[in-house]
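Posted in: Structural Biology > Protein-Ligand Complexes

Title: Requesting predicted complex, BIS(adenosine)-5'-pentaphosphate in pocket

I'd be grateful if someone could produce the 3D structure tokens for the following input. Sequence and ligand are given below.
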Amino acid sequence: MRLVLVGPPGAGKGTQAVNLASHFAIPHISTGDIFRSNLKAGTPLGLEAKSHMDRGELVPDEVTNKMVKDRLSKDDVKPGFLLDGFPRNVVQADVLKAILEEKKSPIEAALELVVDKNEIINRLSGRRTCKNCQRAFHIQYEKPAKDGLCDGCGGDLYQREDDKEEVIARRLEVYSEQTAPIIDFYAREGVLISIPAMGAVDEVTKRAIDALAARSGSNA
Ligand code: AP5
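-- Reply #1 --
Done. Output follows.
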């Protein structure tokens, strides 16, 4: 399965990506997580990305495209992969298409998570992220078993700089101006699947798996 997850900030892409990657036994590639890991390690890539991320802007395409091209050259993506946070504009979508055309292995589905704006703001403002493994929790909807600590690895939870109110507003603008056009791009490619992403995490996962199964059944 070669899958792209599309949706606004806070739609639940990272949360669903963990469940779907485990279900399909494919690597979860999140460009946001790669940037944050680089930042934590203090690499030049992380420092470059931080200046854009903290303002809610996109990291320049040449930096992001190269990083994704390198990642997609690894052996573990041969059985498939799930991209979360990439592509984020039509230039990136074209670059991804060209990388995959070379390998004769195009995207099979672009899964759009549809969530209303109030829910997005609730989800982002209440998100707490593990400093160590980047797993997302929520102070109301997905509480960790122990306050302030990750259930998975025991790492400390923190609030992302870009989950502050003024940055959320900018990220939503960037999404509608630059990222939303990729929904039409994938509709034209004939691979778009849109599902409502309101409701409990497990319900959304089931909806996604059912929609992907229905699509692969109809392509069989
Ligand atoms: P990135 O890390 O990709 O952020 P994003 O796309 O803005 O998405 P988020 O991580 O904010 O949200 P999500 O949809 O994954 O939601 P989550 O599952 O965490 O990118 C950050 C920045 O990096 C960008 O702004 C940009 O600067 C840079 N960047 C990244 N990729 C780039 C690219 N390709 N090009 C250029 N720049 C790039 O869920 C949110 C919260 O809701 C959590 O608390 C979760 O617990 C909760 N939740 C999830 N699902 C549910 C549910 N069903 N019910 C209740 N709560 C839920």
